[in-house]
# Entry
Amino acid sequence: MTTRPADFIGEKDRTYLLAVLLPKSAQLVLAPFLRYLSKALPDAIWPMPPASLHTTLYELMQRGSFGGIDKDALFEHNKAVWQQDLAEIFSTTLPVSLAFTEICVSPDAITLRCKNSDDFNEIRSRIGRRLALPSFTKAPPDITHCTVARFLTSVDMQLVEHAMAAFGLLPRINVAVQDVQLIKTSIQPVLEYEVLQRFSLLSKK
# Structure
């Protein structure tokens, strides 16, 4: 099996998503691994820039044509209601702890994954029930993951797996989620973006 090149890197396209940007501590843990992969397979691996590393909770409007709809106009039309609904959802959601314990390679990407996605999936379910989202919005994932690298060319996946194995074990990455960011992107994948709002989760007292 071979990898699939990501033809959208650097592409101008608007998306709106709810995500958790990885903190500096997690970025520092990942930096040696991503540098190693870039050197081991320089023509094949495209590492995500540290400031772009994130885990997606829910895409409100994803990459692509989106039925020809003007995403910015649609967001502005719904912004007030969506932001109020999301504020109410997150204000009653306890902080979440993400433990990225697995690193996986697929034809499309190298990702970190959490074994347990129950907390994120419960929030996703509440968002899906509460927000009146466009019919073109795709269903959210049922896993909690962070894409750390994409592929520039088509290469044998075994080469990627061997390079990852040669690096050794990646330290476990824990992220304490205290807030969720509403992000508007302009260059994919999350290379240029603006944090429109931060939704704080319910404080433990």
About this structure: Helices lie at 24-40, 71-90, 118-130, 157-167. The mean pLDDT is 95.
